[in-house]
Amino acid sequence: xxxxxVDYVKIMCRSGxxxxxxxxxxxxxxxxxxxxxxxxxxxxxxxYLRGNHNYWTLxxxxxxxxxxxxxxxxxxxxxxxxxxxxxxxxDVPCGTVVYNAExxxxxxxxxxxxxxxxxxxxxxxxxxxFQFRTATNQAxxxxxxxxxxxxxxxxxxxxxxxxxxxxxxxNAGKSTLVSALSNARPKxxxxxxxxxxxxxGIVGYRDNKSFVMAxxxxxxxxxxxxxxxxxxFLRHIERNSLLLFMVPGDTDDIKREYEILLNELKQFNPExxxxxxxxxxxxxxxxxxxxxxxxxxxxxxxxxxxxxSAVTGFGLEELKDVLWNELNAESNKLAALTAEDSLVHxxxxxxxxxxxxxxxxxxxxxxxVDIDDVEDLEDFEYxxxxxxxx
Length: 390
Prior knowledge:
This protein is α/β, with parallel strands linked by helices. The protein contains eight helices and 16 strands. It has two domains: 8-158 and 367-389, Distorted Sandwich (Spo0b-associated Gtp-binding Protein, Chain: A), CATH 2.70.210; 164-351, 3-Layer(aba) Sandwich (Rossmann fold). The radius of gyration is 29 Å and the shape is elongated.
């Protein structure tokens, strides 16, 4: 069964070309030499990206492979201006990053609701011969062509925005925790990679306060190199304010597992190590108090550690207190503000770009519209006219 969660889409966008200016000389009864009266062409439509908080996936764009703006209308006689082409707005979820599909270069980023980003600018309309009249050239027999359209095939990549992101190996109890703390109901089973797509849950706190928790699929050693669909999952961790590392209590070496997870984040994006971190030791219903005290001595000392059991509810209130305090710490707020201003998106690694497209099912080339299928071919006649004039 195909999932409704779509976080990676490849589409072709094209702005509108500008309308050509009109070359017209006025010839009417009683005024056979009325002079030039050709109007200007209209501007072509532009393509914009717009943040919309009502969307949380890119599903609505999955089957819309071509997005074209309208062309500008041609100028007419009697100084009639051509119609302007309509702009096209592509609504995307907040947290969408855009890359050029051919070069892998970062293009733009949409982070908040209502934000509008110009993706492709429409061509300006050409001037009619009325604009070229002078005292020495009172009947110009030429006009200006409109500017050509712009085309780009882009990749839209969604990175979930959440307050707390869950980081852990498969089967560490991440989905169980989200279902215990919120009304979200992710699939839960006793085998690795039960969760194949991220989900969000709103966690209620005291005094009607709340924060958003993201259940992110498990990552394995080597995820930063693409193992276990690691690249697809790791990008959802980048935008979270706080990282909650989850390691089961029955693991042989909890500290080592935590360090492996930390190393994968470092390899994927070193800036993620600047985020506040909390370690949760899960499945503590399998441990007794004496064993928990022994484990505390072996755990890392540079971050808060909480022992929890999502099944029995042990330690969940303490966990919520720790998460809330970390989220509202002054240093975390300051880091979030500076990260928003200085967020640097890396270009795609071209050595792995083709493999990434294949993993996401977007490796097929989008069929370009042939030039013969374009309705108005007069632009190309104008290119010839322009050459003749120079």
